[in-house]
Specification:
Elements (H helix, E strand, L loop, with lengths): L3 E4 L7 H9 L2 E4 L1 H14 L3 H9 L11 E9 L2 E8 L1 H7 E2 L19 H12 L8 E5 L7 E4 L10 E6 L7 E5 L1 H5 L12 E7 L3 H12 L7 H12 L5 H18 L9 E2 L11 E2 H9 L5 E3 L4 E4 L7 H22 L1 H5 L11 H20 L10 H20 L3 H9 L5 H16 L8 H6 L4 H29 L3 H4 L3 H15 L17 H9 L3 H10 L9 H4 L1 H14 L6 H14 L5 H9 L7
Length: 619
Protein backbone atom coordinates (compact mmCIF):
# COMPACT_ATOMS: atom_id res chain seq x y z
CA UNK A 1 0.00 0.00 0.00
CA UNK A 2 1.23 3.48 -0.86
CA UNK A 3 0.38 6.72 0.93
CA UNK A 4 1.55 10.26 0.20
CA UNK A 5 2.53 12.62 3.02
CA UNK A 6 3.39 16.31 2.93
CA UNK A 7 5.51 16.97 6.03
CA UNK A 8 6.10 20.56 7.19
CA UNK A 9 7.80 22.33 10.06
CA UNK A 10 7.02 25.85 11.32
CA UNK A 11 4.47 26.24 8.56
CA UNK A 12 0.73 26.76 8.96
CA UNK A 13 -1.42 25.45 6.11
CA UNK A 14 -4.57 27.35 5.24
CA UNK A 15 -7.94 25.54 5.25
CA UNK A 16 -7.92 25.73 1.45
CA UNK A 17 -4.51 24.02 1.29
CA UNK A 18 -5.65 21.30 3.66
CA UNK A 19 -8.83 20.79 1.65
CA UNK A 20 -6.87 20.41 -1.57
CA UNK A 21 -4.50 17.89 0.02
CA UNK A 22 -7.46 15.91 1.28
CA UNK A 23 -9.08 15.90 -2.18
CA UNK A 24 -5.92 14.22 -3.54
CA UNK A 25 -5.77 11.81 -0.58
CA UNK A 26 -2.50 13.34 0.64
CA UNK A 27 -1.83 13.38 4.38
CA UNK A 28 -0.33 16.43 6.08
CA UNK A 29 2.17 15.88 8.90
CA UNK A 30 3.18 18.93 10.90
CA UNK A 31 5.85 18.92 13.60
CA UNK A 32 3.04 18.02 16.03
CA UNK A 33 2.39 14.76 14.16
CA UNK A 34 6.07 13.92 13.93
CA UNK A 35 6.49 14.59 17.66
CA UNK A 36 3.58 12.24 18.38
CA UNK A 37 4.97 9.36 16.30
CA UNK A 38 8.44 9.98 17.67
CA UNK A 39 7.07 9.64 21.20
CA UNK A 40 4.99 6.61 20.18
CA UNK A 41 8.06 4.84 18.75
CA UNK A 42 9.96 5.64 21.95
CA UNK A 43 7.34 3.78 23.97
CA UNK A 44 6.17 1.09 21.53
CA UNK A 45 9.13 0.43 19.27
CA UNK A 46 8.05 -1.44 16.14
CA UNK A 47 4.50 -1.78 17.49
CA UNK A 48 3.95 1.89 16.65
CA UNK A 49 3.38 0.74 13.06
CA UNK A 50 -0.17 -0.36 13.89
CA UNK A 51 -1.22 3.13 14.93
CA UNK A 52 0.67 4.57 11.94
CA UNK A 53 -1.03 2.22 9.44
CA UNK A 54 -4.43 3.03 10.92
CA UNK A 55 -3.79 6.75 10.45
CA UNK A 56 -2.59 6.40 6.84
CA UNK A 57 -5.09 3.80 5.60
CA UNK A 58 -8.38 4.31 7.49
CA UNK A 59 -11.15 2.04 6.13
CA UNK A 60 -8.78 0.39 3.63
CA UNK A 61 -9.11 -3.38 3.35
CA UNK A 62 -6.43 -5.46 5.03
CA UNK A 63 -5.35 -8.10 2.47
CA UNK A 64 -5.79 -11.77 3.43
CA UNK A 65 -7.17 -10.81 6.85
CA UNK A 66 -8.89 -13.69 8.66
CA UNK A 67 -11.77 -11.75 10.18
CA UNK A 68 -14.03 -14.50 11.56
CA UNK A 69 -14.42 -15.12 15.30
CA UNK A 70 -16.76 -17.21 17.43
CA UNK A 71 -18.84 -14.76 19.45
CA UNK A 72 -21.77 -14.32 21.80
CA UNK A 73 -24.15 -11.47 21.00
CA UNK A 74 -26.00 -9.75 23.82
CA UNK A 75 -27.50 -6.50 25.07
CA UNK A 76 -26.07 -4.23 27.76
CA UNK A 77 -27.10 -0.71 28.72
CA UNK A 78 -29.30 -0.48 25.64
CA UNK A 79 -26.37 -1.37 23.35
CA UNK A 80 -25.66 -4.50 21.35
CA UNK A 81 -22.31 -6.04 22.19
CA UNK A 82 -20.27 -9.08 21.16
CA UNK A 83 -18.05 -11.11 23.44
CA UNK A 84 -15.29 -13.09 21.73
CA UNK A 85 -11.67 -14.20 21.88
CA UNK A 86 -9.16 -13.21 19.22
CA UNK A 87 -5.45 -13.54 18.56
CA UNK A 88 -3.64 -10.29 19.53
CA UNK A 89 -1.89 -10.04 16.15
CA UNK A 90 -5.28 -9.80 14.40
CA UNK A 91 -6.74 -7.23 16.78
CA UNK A 92 -3.62 -5.08 16.54
CA UNK A 93 -4.05 -4.75 12.78
CA UNK A 94 -7.67 -3.68 13.11
CA UNK A 95 -7.31 -1.39 16.10
CA UNK A 96 -6.80 2.29 16.74
CA UNK A 97 -6.30 4.24 19.97
CA UNK A 98 -7.65 7.77 20.37
CA UNK A 99 -4.62 9.18 22.17
CA UNK A 100 -4.64 12.63 23.71
CA UNK A 101 -2.60 14.29 20.97
CA UNK A 102 -2.97 17.21 18.57
CA UNK A 103 -1.83 14.74 15.91
CA UNK A 104 -5.10 12.82 16.08
CA UNK A 105 -7.81 14.83 14.38
CA UNK A 106 -10.74 12.63 15.44
CA UNK A 107 -12.62 13.97 18.45
CA UNK A 108 -13.04 13.33 21.26
CA UNK A 109 -9.65 11.80 22.05
CA UNK A 110 -9.22 10.49 25.57
CA UNK A 111 -6.57 7.79 26.00
CA UNK A 112 -3.33 8.37 27.85
CA UNK A 113 -0.24 7.80 25.71
CA UNK A 114 1.12 4.29 26.21
CA UNK A 115 3.97 4.25 28.73
CA UNK A 116 7.12 2.30 27.87
CA UNK A 117 7.86 1.28 31.47
CA UNK A 118 4.40 -0.15 31.98
CA UNK A 119 4.41 -1.85 28.58
CA UNK A 120 7.80 -3.45 29.29
CA UNK A 121 6.59 -4.84 32.61
CA UNK A 122 3.41 -6.28 31.09
CA UNK A 123 5.37 -7.80 28.16
CA UNK A 124 7.76 -9.51 30.60
CA UNK A 125 4.77 -10.86 32.51
CA UNK A 126 3.17 -12.26 29.33
CA UNK A 127 6.40 -13.75 27.94
CA UNK A 128 6.89 -15.58 31.23
CA UNK A 129 3.52 -17.28 30.76
CA UNK A 130 1.32 -14.73 32.53
CA UNK A 131 -2.09 -13.70 31.26
CA UNK A 132 -4.96 -11.29 31.94
CA UNK A 133 -8.43 -12.85 32.17
CA UNK A 134 -10.27 -9.51 32.02
CA UNK A 135 -11.64 -8.33 28.70
CA UNK A 136 -10.35 -5.58 26.46
CA UNK A 137 -13.19 -3.13 25.76
CA UNK A 138 -13.53 -1.93 22.16
CA UNK A 139 -15.92 -0.22 19.79
CA UNK A 140 -16.37 -1.62 16.28
CA UNK A 141 -16.92 0.95 13.54
CA UNK A 142 -19.14 -0.85 11.05
CA UNK A 143 -18.70 1.85 8.41
CA UNK A 144 -22.45 2.21 8.14
CA UNK A 145 -22.95 -1.45 7.25
CA UNK A 146 -24.67 -3.93 9.52
CA UNK A 147 -22.19 -6.41 10.99
CA UNK A 148 -22.63 -9.92 9.66
CA UNK A 149 -23.37 -12.45 12.40
CA UNK A 150 -24.02 -16.09 11.47
CA UNK A 151 -26.20 -17.34 14.31
CA UNK A 152 -25.58 -20.96 15.32
CA UNK A 153 -28.50 -23.29 16.07
CA UNK A 154 -30.00 -24.23 18.38
CA UNK A 155 -30.83 -21.15 20.47
CA UNK A 156 -31.90 -21.14 24.10
CA UNK A 157 -35.47 -19.93 24.53
CA UNK A 158 -35.99 -16.78 26.62
CA UNK A 159 -32.25 -15.96 26.41
CA UNK A 160 -31.23 -12.51 25.21
CA UNK A 161 -27.84 -13.86 24.08
CA UNK A 162 -27.06 -15.69 20.85
CA UNK A 163 -24.07 -17.77 19.79
CA UNK A 164 -22.57 -17.54 16.33
CA UNK A 165 -19.75 -16.43 14.05
CA UNK A 166 -19.02 -12.71 13.83
CA UNK A 167 -17.53 -11.18 10.69
CA UNK A 168 -15.26 -8.36 11.84
CA UNK A 169 -14.66 -5.52 9.33
CA UNK A 170 -11.31 -6.47 7.74
CA UNK A 171 -10.23 -2.83 7.58
CA UNK A 172 -7.63 -0.60 9.19
CA UNK A 173 -9.00 1.56 12.03
CA UNK A 174 -12.24 -0.40 12.30
CA UNK A 175 -11.82 -1.22 16.01
CA UNK A 176 -11.30 1.52 18.62
CA UNK A 177 -9.66 0.47 21.88
CA UNK A 178 -11.59 1.96 24.81
CA UNK A 179 -9.84 0.10 27.63
CA UNK A 180 -6.86 -2.26 27.59
CA UNK A 181 -4.36 -0.66 25.20
CA UNK A 182 -1.35 -1.66 27.34
CA UNK A 183 -2.52 -5.30 27.52
CA UNK A 184 -3.05 -5.44 23.77
CA UNK A 185 0.20 -3.75 22.72
CA UNK A 186 2.26 -5.83 25.10
CA UNK A 187 1.55 -8.79 22.78
CA UNK A 188 3.18 -7.06 19.81
CA UNK A 189 6.29 -8.96 18.70
CA UNK A 190 5.63 -11.44 21.51
CA UNK A 191 5.98 -15.19 21.00
CA UNK A 192 2.34 -15.47 22.08
CA UNK A 193 0.85 -12.93 19.66
CA UNK A 194 -0.34 -15.64 17.23
CA UNK A 195 -1.05 -18.61 19.49
CA UNK A 196 -2.75 -16.89 22.45
CA UNK A 197 -6.22 -15.41 22.40
CA UNK A 198 -7.47 -12.49 24.45
CA UNK A 199 -11.05 -11.86 25.61
CA UNK A 200 -12.82 -8.88 24.08
CA UNK A 201 -16.13 -7.13 24.75
CA UNK A 202 -17.05 -5.19 21.62
CA UNK A 203 -19.74 -2.55 21.27
CA UNK A 204 -20.84 -1.44 17.82
CA UNK A 205 -20.96 2.10 16.41
CA UNK A 206 -20.77 3.91 19.73
CA UNK A 207 -20.64 7.65 19.29
CA UNK A 208 -17.17 8.89 20.28
CA UNK A 209 -18.61 10.88 23.17
CA UNK A 210 -20.14 7.60 24.42
CA UNK A 211 -16.73 5.96 24.13
CA UNK A 212 -15.27 8.76 26.22
CA UNK A 213 -18.02 8.42 28.81
CA UNK A 214 -17.45 4.66 29.00
CA UNK A 215 -13.69 5.19 29.35
CA UNK A 216 -14.23 7.59 32.26
CA UNK A 217 -16.68 5.23 33.98
CA UNK A 218 -14.26 2.30 33.65
CA UNK A 219 -11.31 4.30 34.96
CA UNK A 220 -12.92 6.37 37.71
CA UNK A 221 -12.33 3.65 40.31
CA UNK A 222 -8.89 2.72 38.99
CA UNK A 223 -5.91 5.05 38.57
CA UNK A 224 -6.99 8.54 39.58
CA UNK A 225 -7.62 10.84 36.64
CA UNK A 226 -5.82 14.11 37.31
CA UNK A 227 -7.70 17.42 37.38
CA UNK A 228 -5.74 18.53 34.33
CA UNK A 229 -6.71 15.41 32.36
CA UNK A 230 -10.36 15.75 33.45
CA UNK A 231 -10.42 19.26 31.97
CA UNK A 232 -8.91 17.93 28.75
CA UNK A 233 -11.48 15.14 28.48
CA UNK A 234 -14.32 17.49 29.45
CA UNK A 235 -13.46 19.78 26.55
CA UNK A 236 -14.31 16.97 24.12
CA UNK A 237 -17.27 15.61 26.09
CA UNK A 238 -19.09 18.94 26.45
CA UNK A 239 -18.09 20.68 23.21
CA UNK A 240 -21.33 19.93 21.33
CA UNK A 241 -23.58 19.38 24.34
CA UNK A 242 -27.23 20.41 24.10
CA UNK A 243 -26.86 21.71 27.66
CA UNK A 244 -25.89 25.38 27.22
CA UNK A 245 -23.95 25.51 30.48
CA UNK A 246 -21.95 22.41 29.58
CA UNK A 247 -21.30 23.72 26.08
CA UNK A 248 -19.86 26.96 27.50
CA UNK A 249 -17.66 24.90 29.83
CA UNK A 250 -16.47 22.81 26.90
CA UNK A 251 -15.62 25.99 24.97
CA UNK A 252 -13.52 27.34 27.86
CA UNK A 253 -11.69 24.07 28.28
CA UNK A 254 -10.98 23.72 24.58
CA UNK A 255 -9.70 27.30 24.51
CA UNK A 256 -7.45 26.59 27.50
CA UNK A 257 -6.13 23.48 25.77
CA UNK A 258 -5.42 25.42 22.55
CA UNK A 259 -3.40 27.96 24.56
CA UNK A 260 -0.84 25.19 25.01
CA UNK A 261 -1.19 23.16 21.81
CA UNK A 262 -2.05 25.49 18.92
CA UNK A 263 1.05 26.23 16.85
CA UNK A 264 0.05 29.93 16.69
CA UNK A 265 -0.18 30.36 20.47
CA UNK A 266 2.53 32.38 22.27
CA UNK A 267 1.95 29.98 25.19
CA UNK A 268 2.57 26.83 23.14
CA UNK A 269 4.81 24.49 25.11
CA UNK A 270 4.12 26.31 28.39
CA UNK A 271 0.72 24.76 29.25
CA UNK A 272 0.25 21.32 30.81
CA UNK A 273 -2.36 19.49 28.71
CA UNK A 274 -3.71 16.06 29.63
CA UNK A 275 -0.94 14.15 31.38
CA UNK A 276 1.96 16.29 30.19
CA UNK A 277 4.95 16.26 32.53
CA UNK A 278 5.97 19.50 34.22
CA UNK A 279 9.24 21.05 33.01
CA UNK A 280 11.15 24.25 33.81
CA UNK A 281 9.04 26.13 31.27
CA UNK A 282 5.84 24.04 31.07
CA UNK A 283 4.13 24.91 34.37
CA UNK A 284 0.76 26.52 33.51
CA UNK A 285 -2.24 24.32 34.29
CA UNK A 286 -5.57 24.24 32.49
CA UNK A 287 -7.13 24.95 35.87
CA UNK A 288 -5.40 28.36 36.06
CA UNK A 289 -6.55 29.33 32.57
CA UNK A 290 -10.12 28.19 33.19
CA UNK A 291 -10.10 30.06 36.51
CA UNK A 292 -9.22 33.18 34.52
CA UNK A 293 -11.85 32.61 31.84
CA UNK A 294 -14.59 31.92 34.41
CA UNK A 295 -14.35 35.46 35.76
CA UNK A 296 -14.50 37.15 32.35
CA UNK A 297 -17.60 38.28 30.48
CA UNK A 298 -16.30 36.87 27.21
CA UNK A 299 -18.34 33.65 26.97
CA UNK A 300 -21.41 34.37 29.12
CA UNK A 301 -23.45 32.61 31.78
CA UNK A 302 -26.03 29.91 31.11
CA UNK A 303 -28.47 27.53 32.70
CA UNK A 304 -29.15 24.18 31.11
CA UNK A 305 -31.38 25.68 28.43
CA UNK A 306 -31.32 29.47 28.87
CA UNK A 307 -28.90 32.36 28.39
CA UNK A 308 -28.48 34.31 31.65
CA UNK A 309 -25.78 36.67 30.32
CA UNK A 310 -24.73 36.82 26.68
CA UNK A 311 -20.94 36.68 26.35
CA UNK A 312 -19.11 39.58 24.71
CA UNK A 313 -17.42 37.28 22.19
CA UNK A 314 -20.00 34.48 22.08
CA UNK A 315 -21.26 34.13 18.51
CA UNK A 316 -23.72 31.36 19.36
CA UNK A 317 -21.51 28.84 17.57
CA UNK A 318 -18.81 27.10 19.60
CA UNK A 319 -16.29 26.83 16.79
CA UNK A 320 -16.71 30.44 15.65
CA UNK A 321 -16.54 31.69 19.24
CA UNK A 322 -13.40 29.62 19.79
CA UNK A 323 -11.77 31.08 16.67
CA UNK A 324 -12.54 34.66 17.77
CA UNK A 325 -11.29 34.13 21.32
CA UNK A 326 -8.14 32.34 20.18
CA UNK A 327 -7.29 35.22 17.86
CA UNK A 328 -7.98 37.74 20.62
CA UNK A 329 -5.85 36.02 23.25
CA UNK A 330 -3.04 35.06 20.88
CA UNK A 331 -2.67 38.67 19.71
CA UNK A 332 -2.89 39.85 23.34
CA UNK A 333 -0.23 37.42 24.60
CA UNK A 334 1.93 38.23 21.58
CA UNK A 335 1.84 41.89 22.59
CA UNK A 336 2.69 41.05 26.22
CA UNK A 337 5.55 38.76 25.14
CA UNK A 338 7.08 41.44 22.90
CA UNK A 339 6.59 44.50 25.12
CA UNK A 340 7.63 42.71 28.31
CA UNK A 341 10.02 40.29 26.66
CA UNK A 342 12.44 39.95 29.55
CA UNK A 343 9.66 39.18 32.03
CA UNK A 344 7.92 36.84 29.57
CA UNK A 345 11.09 34.80 29.08
CA UNK A 346 11.90 34.62 32.80
CA UNK A 347 11.57 31.05 34.13
CA UNK A 348 9.46 30.21 37.20
CA UNK A 349 12.58 29.16 39.10
CA UNK A 350 13.94 32.68 38.49
CA UNK A 351 10.90 34.41 39.96
CA UNK A 352 8.70 34.73 36.86
CA UNK A 353 5.39 36.53 37.42
CA UNK A 354 3.76 36.32 33.97
CA UNK A 355 4.22 32.83 32.55
CA UNK A 356 3.07 31.04 35.71
CA UNK A 357 -0.42 30.09 36.84
CA UNK A 358 -1.05 33.21 38.90
CA UNK A 359 0.27 35.53 36.20
CA UNK A 360 -1.77 34.02 33.36
CA UNK A 361 -4.95 34.09 35.47
CA UNK A 362 -4.32 37.76 36.32
CA UNK A 363 -3.55 38.68 32.69
CA UNK A 364 -6.84 37.14 31.54
CA UNK A 365 -8.76 39.12 34.17
CA UNK A 366 -7.00 42.35 33.19
CA UNK A 367 -7.85 41.92 29.51
CA UNK A 368 -11.48 41.47 30.52
CA UNK A 369 -11.35 44.71 32.58
CA UNK A 370 -9.77 46.71 29.75
CA UNK A 371 -12.23 45.48 27.11
CA UNK A 372 -15.25 46.19 29.33
CA UNK A 373 -13.84 49.69 29.96
CA UNK A 374 -13.34 50.28 26.22
CA UNK A 375 -16.86 49.07 25.39
CA UNK A 376 -18.31 51.51 27.95
CA UNK A 377 -16.36 54.33 26.26
CA UNK A 378 -17.45 53.20 22.75
CA UNK A 379 -13.82 52.62 21.81
CA UNK A 380 -14.41 49.08 20.52
CA UNK A 381 -17.30 46.98 19.20
CA UNK A 382 -16.79 43.25 19.87
CA UNK A 383 -17.66 40.82 17.04
CA UNK A 384 -17.49 43.75 14.59
CA UNK A 385 -13.97 44.95 15.26
CA UNK A 386 -11.21 42.45 14.55
CA UNK A 387 -9.30 40.94 17.50
CA UNK A 388 -6.21 42.74 16.22
CA UNK A 389 -8.00 46.12 16.31
CA UNK A 390 -9.34 45.46 19.81
CA UNK A 391 -5.91 44.59 21.21
CA UNK A 392 -4.37 47.57 19.40
CA UNK A 393 -6.82 49.88 21.22
CA UNK A 394 -6.16 48.03 24.47
CA UNK A 395 -2.43 48.78 24.30
CA UNK A 396 -3.26 52.40 25.27
CA UNK A 397 -4.04 50.99 28.73
CA UNK A 398 -1.70 48.01 28.83
CA UNK A 399 1.39 50.24 28.75
CA UNK A 400 0.88 50.69 32.48
CA UNK A 401 2.00 47.07 32.90
CA UNK A 402 5.30 47.88 31.19
CA UNK A 403 5.93 50.61 33.74
CA UNK A 404 5.13 48.26 36.61
CA UNK A 405 7.67 45.64 35.51
CA UNK A 406 10.27 48.30 34.68
CA UNK A 407 10.14 49.43 38.33
CA UNK A 408 9.70 46.04 40.03
CA UNK A 409 12.54 45.30 42.47
CA UNK A 410 13.71 41.87 43.64
CA UNK A 411 12.15 42.22 47.11
CA UNK A 412 8.71 42.97 45.64
CA UNK A 413 9.09 40.06 43.22
CA UNK A 414 9.99 37.64 46.00
CA UNK A 415 7.05 38.84 48.11
CA UNK A 416 4.59 38.34 45.26
CA UNK A 417 5.91 34.83 44.56
CA UNK A 418 5.96 33.59 48.16
CA UNK A 419 3.64 35.54 50.45
CA UNK A 420 0.08 35.31 49.20
CA UNK A 421 -0.47 31.62 48.41
CA UNK A 422 -3.94 30.97 47.05
CA UNK A 423 -4.63 34.73 47.05
CA UNK A 424 -1.74 35.46 44.67
CA UNK A 425 -3.82 35.65 41.43
CA UNK A 426 -6.14 38.22 43.00
CA UNK A 427 -3.22 40.18 44.40
CA UNK A 428 -1.44 40.27 41.01
CA UNK A 429 -4.68 41.21 39.25
CA UNK A 430 -5.26 44.15 41.57
CA UNK A 431 -1.62 45.23 41.22
CA UNK A 432 -1.93 45.13 37.43
CA UNK A 433 -5.18 47.14 37.63
CA UNK A 434 -3.52 49.73 39.86
CA UNK A 435 -0.52 49.98 37.52
CA UNK A 436 -2.84 50.75 34.60
CA UNK A 437 -4.84 53.20 36.71
CA UNK A 438 -1.68 55.15 37.62
CA UNK A 439 -0.90 55.58 33.94
CA UNK A 440 -4.51 56.08 32.73
CA UNK A 441 -6.61 57.54 35.54
CA UNK A 442 -9.88 57.07 33.60
CA UNK A 443 -9.44 53.31 34.11
CA UNK A 444 -11.23 52.51 37.37
CA UNK A 445 -12.46 48.90 37.38
CA UNK A 446 -15.07 47.86 39.91
CA UNK A 447 -13.70 46.93 43.34
CA UNK A 448 -10.20 48.35 42.83
CA UNK A 449 -10.48 51.16 45.39
CA UNK A 450 -12.23 48.93 47.91
CA UNK A 451 -9.54 46.25 47.59
CA UNK A 452 -6.69 48.56 48.49
CA UNK A 453 -8.77 50.25 51.16
CA UNK A 454 -9.31 46.87 52.83
CA UNK A 455 -5.69 45.78 52.74
CA UNK A 456 -5.48 46.42 56.47
CA UNK A 457 -6.93 42.90 56.57
CA UNK A 458 -4.20 41.65 54.28
CA UNK A 459 -4.10 38.13 55.69
CA UNK A 460 -7.85 37.56 55.53
CA UNK A 461 -8.14 37.11 51.76
CA UNK A 462 -5.26 34.66 51.35
CA UNK A 463 -6.28 32.73 54.47
CA UNK A 464 -9.91 32.46 53.37
CA UNK A 465 -8.94 31.23 49.91
CA UNK A 466 -6.57 28.62 51.33
CA UNK A 467 -9.27 27.40 53.72
CA UNK A 468 -11.64 27.12 50.74
CA UNK A 469 -9.20 24.85 48.92
CA UNK A 470 -8.59 22.77 52.05
CA UNK A 471 -12.34 22.38 52.50
CA UNK A 472 -12.74 21.31 48.86
CA UNK A 473 -9.96 18.74 49.28
CA UNK A 474 -11.63 17.32 52.39
CA UNK A 475 -15.01 17.26 50.65
CA UNK A 476 -13.74 15.20 47.72
CA UNK A 477 -11.25 12.95 49.50
CA UNK A 478 -13.49 11.99 52.42
CA UNK A 479 -16.34 11.30 49.99
CA UNK A 480 -14.22 9.04 47.78
CA UNK A 481 -12.88 7.19 50.83
CA UNK A 482 -16.43 6.51 52.06
CA UNK A 483 -17.60 5.42 48.59
CA UNK A 484 -14.71 2.97 48.37
CA UNK A 485 -15.62 1.56 51.81
CA UNK A 486 -19.43 1.49 51.61
CA UNK A 487 -20.38 1.75 47.93
CA UNK A 488 -23.75 3.31 47.06
CA UNK A 489 -24.81 3.65 50.73
CA UNK A 490 -21.72 5.68 51.67
CA UNK A 491 -23.72 8.74 52.74
CA UNK A 492 -25.84 6.85 55.27
CA UNK A 493 -23.15 4.47 56.49
CA UNK A 494 -20.37 7.03 56.77
CA UNK A 495 -21.84 9.38 59.39
CA UNK A 496 -23.89 9.47 62.59
CA UNK A 497 -27.67 9.28 61.91
CA UNK A 498 -28.15 12.65 63.64
CA UNK A 499 -25.73 14.34 61.23
CA UNK A 500 -27.37 12.63 58.26
CA UNK A 501 -30.80 13.84 59.37
CA UNK A 502 -29.46 17.37 59.93
CA UNK A 503 -27.96 17.47 56.42
CA UNK A 504 -31.20 16.23 54.85
CA UNK A 505 -33.06 19.07 56.57
CA UNK A 506 -30.49 21.68 55.53
CA UNK A 507 -30.47 20.62 51.88
CA UNK A 508 -34.29 20.79 51.78
CA UNK A 509 -34.14 24.38 53.09
CA UNK A 510 -31.54 25.34 50.47
CA UNK A 511 -33.32 23.80 47.50
CA UNK A 512 -36.87 24.91 48.21
CA UNK A 513 -36.46 28.22 46.38
CA UNK A 514 -34.23 26.97 43.53
CA UNK A 515 -35.99 26.61 40.18
CA UNK A 516 -33.30 24.90 38.09
CA UNK A 517 -32.67 21.33 39.30
CA UNK A 518 -29.04 21.50 38.21
CA UNK A 519 -28.42 24.30 40.69
CA UNK A 520 -29.72 22.27 43.64
CA UNK A 521 -27.38 21.19 46.43
CA UNK A 522 -26.96 17.71 47.85
CA UNK A 523 -26.55 16.72 51.52
CA UNK A 524 -22.76 16.53 51.12
CA UNK A 525 -22.73 20.19 50.01
CA UNK A 526 -24.14 21.29 53.39
CA UNK A 527 -21.24 20.11 55.54
CA UNK A 528 -19.23 22.52 57.69
CA UNK A 529 -15.48 21.97 58.08
CA UNK A 530 -15.89 20.73 61.63
CA UNK A 531 -18.30 18.01 60.38
CA UNK A 532 -15.42 16.22 58.67
CA UNK A 533 -13.92 15.67 62.13
CA UNK A 534 -17.24 14.14 63.24
CA UNK A 535 -17.23 11.81 60.20
CA UNK A 536 -13.62 10.74 60.73
CA UNK A 537 -14.33 9.94 64.39
CA UNK A 538 -17.56 8.03 63.66
CA UNK A 539 -17.33 4.38 64.74
CA UNK A 540 -13.91 2.99 63.73
CA UNK A 541 -13.43 5.16 60.67
CA UNK A 542 -10.51 7.15 62.08
CA UNK A 543 -8.22 4.18 62.62
CA UNK A 544 -9.48 2.20 59.59
CA UNK A 545 -9.85 4.91 56.93
CA UNK A 546 -8.44 8.33 57.82
CA UNK A 547 -5.68 8.23 60.44
CA UNK A 548 -2.82 7.62 58.02
CA UNK A 549 -3.78 10.50 55.71
CA UNK A 550 -4.90 13.10 58.23
CA UNK A 551 -2.41 12.84 61.08
CA UNK A 552 0.01 15.77 60.96
CA UNK A 553 3.59 14.49 60.67
CA UNK A 554 5.20 14.58 64.11
CA UNK A 555 1.87 14.10 65.96
CA UNK A 556 1.68 10.31 65.62
CA UNK A 557 2.00 9.88 69.40
CA UNK A 558 -1.03 12.03 70.28
CA UNK A 559 -4.53 10.73 70.96
CA UNK A 560 -7.31 10.85 68.35
CA UNK A 561 -8.82 14.11 69.57
CA UNK A 562 -5.46 15.86 69.60
CA UNK A 563 -4.61 14.59 66.12
CA UNK A 564 -7.85 16.04 64.76
CA UNK A 565 -7.54 19.37 66.58
CA UNK A 566 -6.23 21.01 63.38
CA UNK A 567 -9.75 20.80 61.90
CA UNK A 568 -11.15 22.62 64.95
CA UNK A 569 -8.47 25.31 64.56
CA UNK A 570 -9.26 25.78 60.87
CA UNK A 571 -12.95 26.14 61.69
CA UNK A 572 -12.21 28.89 64.25
CA UNK A 573 -10.01 30.83 61.84
CA UNK A 574 -12.54 30.41 59.05
CA UNK A 575 -15.23 31.95 61.25
CA UNK A 576 -12.97 34.94 61.84
CA UNK A 577 -12.57 35.44 58.09
CA UNK A 578 -16.27 34.97 57.41
CA UNK A 579 -17.24 37.57 60.02
CA UNK A 580 -14.59 40.03 58.79
CA UNK A 581 -12.46 39.97 61.92
CA UNK A 582 -8.79 40.53 61.23
CA UNK A 583 -6.74 37.34 60.96
CA UNK A 584 -3.40 37.44 62.75
CA UNK A 585 -0.17 36.62 60.96
CA UNK A 586 0.33 33.56 63.18
CA UNK A 587 -3.09 32.25 62.18
CA UNK A 588 -2.39 32.94 58.53
CA UNK A 589 0.93 31.11 58.79
CA UNK A 590 -0.79 28.15 60.43
CA UNK A 591 -3.35 27.87 57.64
CA UNK A 592 -0.56 28.16 55.07
CA UNK A 593 1.30 25.31 56.79
CA UNK A 594 -1.83 23.11 56.77
CA UNK A 595 -2.44 24.08 53.13
CA UNK A 596 1.10 23.09 52.11
CA UNK A 597 0.73 19.76 53.92
CA UNK A 598 -2.68 18.79 52.52
CA UNK A 599 -2.72 20.44 49.09
CA UNK A 600 0.96 20.66 48.11
CA UNK A 601 2.11 17.49 49.91
CA UNK A 602 4.81 19.47 51.71
CA UNK A 603 4.87 19.03 55.49
CA UNK A 604 7.98 21.11 56.16
CA UNK A 605 6.14 24.20 57.45
CA UNK A 606 3.65 22.36 59.64
CA UNK A 607 6.44 20.31 61.22
CA UNK A 608 8.41 23.48 61.99
CA UNK A 609 5.24 25.11 63.26
CA UNK A 610 4.60 22.24 65.67
CA UNK A 611 8.13 22.45 66.98
CA UNK A 612 7.77 26.07 68.10
CA UNK A 613 4.12 26.20 69.19
CA UNK A 614 1.28 23.94 70.25
CA UNK A 615 -2.09 23.86 68.54
CA UNK A 616 -3.69 25.52 71.53
CA UNK A 617 -1.65 28.67 70.90
CA UNK A 618 -2.93 29.11 67.36
CA UNK A 619 -6.38 30.44 68.18
Amino acid sequence: KIAFVLATQNYILSPADLGRLQSFDVHHFSEVDLDYYDELVTHLGTAARFQFHAALFPDHDIPEMDNLVYAIRGKMGGHTYYSFSIEPTKLLKLSYVLHRSMSIKLLPTYQRIIKKSRLTNIKKFINSGGFFPNSIIVNIDSGGKKLKFDQAPPSIEDSTTRLGVLHLPAKYRSVYIIDGQHRLYSYSDSQYSDNNSIPVVAFVDLDRSEQLQLFMEINENQKAVSTNLKHTLDADLKWDSENLRDRAEGLKKQLAQDFGEDVSSPLRGRVLVGEDQRTDIKVITLEAIIKGLNRTEFIGKFTKDQIKEQGIFNTGNSQKSLDVLKSLFFVYFEYISEEMEQEWRRLPKDGSLLTINDGITALIWVLNDVIIHMIARNEVTPLKDSPEAIVKNATYYLKGLNLFFDNLDSQQRTELRTKYGAGAPTRLWRIFQRAINKDRDDFKPEGLEEYWRDQSKAFNVATYERIGEIEQQLKEDVKQTLIKEYGNVWLKKGMHPNLYTHLATEVAKKNISIEDEEDESGPWDCLYIVNYKDIMEYKGQWSNLFQKTYTIPGQEGLNKSQKLNWIVNINKIRNKCAHEYSVKKEESDYIEAIYDWLILDNSEKIELFNERSSDDEIT
